[in-house]
Automatic annotation (TrEMBL):
SUPFAM superfamilies: L,D-transpeptidase catalytic domain-like. InterPro entries: LD_TPept_cat_dom, Transpep_catalytic_dom. The active site is at H145 (proton donor/acceptor), C153 (nucleophile). GO terms for molecular function: carboxypeptidase activity; transferase activity. This is Murein L,D-transpeptidase. It holds the Pfam family YkuD. Residues 54-184 form the L,D-TPase catalytic domain. Keywords: Cell shape, Cell wall biogenesis/degradation, Peptidoglycan synthesis, Transferase. It comes from Mucilaginibacter ginsenosidivorans.
Length: 234
């Protein structure tokens, strides 16, 4: 068996429920051994537990990835990370090779982790999702990854992806089934939508806004479905 196949197949761990496999590698495990104790200390300092579900929001402008951690019934902001690079500017991805990064409501499951990525560590955001597929958008393998170069992905630098990846991995290890990733062009306030009203994507951004508003009001990620080729929120 080729060596690279052994690397991918052997390091599979059970999640807490003993049913969900999480891909792993020695390199990723070594990174967690270094990073997780620091993150546990940071969580404790923030009044958060280290075994709770996580939630991710991304804002293209000003270039921030947020990690939220569940605390009681709501989620509390844990850390902000600067996005090192993304491509294509504002507006969502609609076709392969358009160079754009997606916007919308995505989900990461354990099998979407890549512990042997060329870009250090990576997580597939799940593009195209049900909304994208209903509109025949094309493309795939859109990642949150390390390094600082992007063609359709969100590049976070190796240092930052180590923390982000470890947080998601540990959430899966403690039983979280999937991690919601809400991706926006900017904070979808009325003032910002007016500010960017000359862009051709404004109607799409207005369509995303109800889900954004739900989280802003409740600090609970919206339940998202697709009905008649449109997002539906509750």
């Amino acid at each position: 068996m080729p060596k690279f196949l052994i690397t991918l197949i052997i390091p599979l761990l059970f999640a807490a429920d003993q049913k969900t496999y999480i891909p792993d590698s020695k390199r990723a495990a070594d990174i967690r051994t270094k990073i997780w104790p620091k993150l546990q200390g940071d969580l404790k300092a923030a009044g958060l537990k280290n075994d709770q579900p996580v939630f991710i929001r991304i804002f293209k402008e000003p270039g921030i990835l947020e990690i939220w951690v569940k605390s009681g019934k709501q989620y509390k902001l844990f850390k902000n990370y600067l996005i090192c690079a993304y491509s294509g500017g504002l507006g969502t991805k609609t076709k392969d090779h358009d160079g754009k990064c997606p916007e919308g409501y995505y989900t990461i499951t354990p099998t979407q982790l890549n512990p042997v990525s060329t870009y250090h560590l990576a997580m597939n955001v799940g593009y195209p999702n049900a909304f994208d597929q209903s509109r025949s958008y094309t493309g795939n393998a859109i990642m949150i990854h390390g390094y600082c170069a992007s063609i359709g992905c969100y590049a976070m630098t190796d240092q930052m992806i180590e923390e982000i990846y470890t947080m998601v991995y540990e959430a899966f290890l403690h039983g979280q089934k999937s991690v919601d990733v809400n991706i926006f062009p900017f904070k979808l306030t009325n003032a910002n939508i007016d500010k960017y009203s000359a862009y051709p994507y404004v109607s799409f951004w207005q369509h995303l806004k109800p889900g954004y508003d739900i989280f802003e009001k409740t600090h609970i990620p919206p339940a998202v479905s697709v009905v008649n080729k449109n997002y539906s929120f509750r």
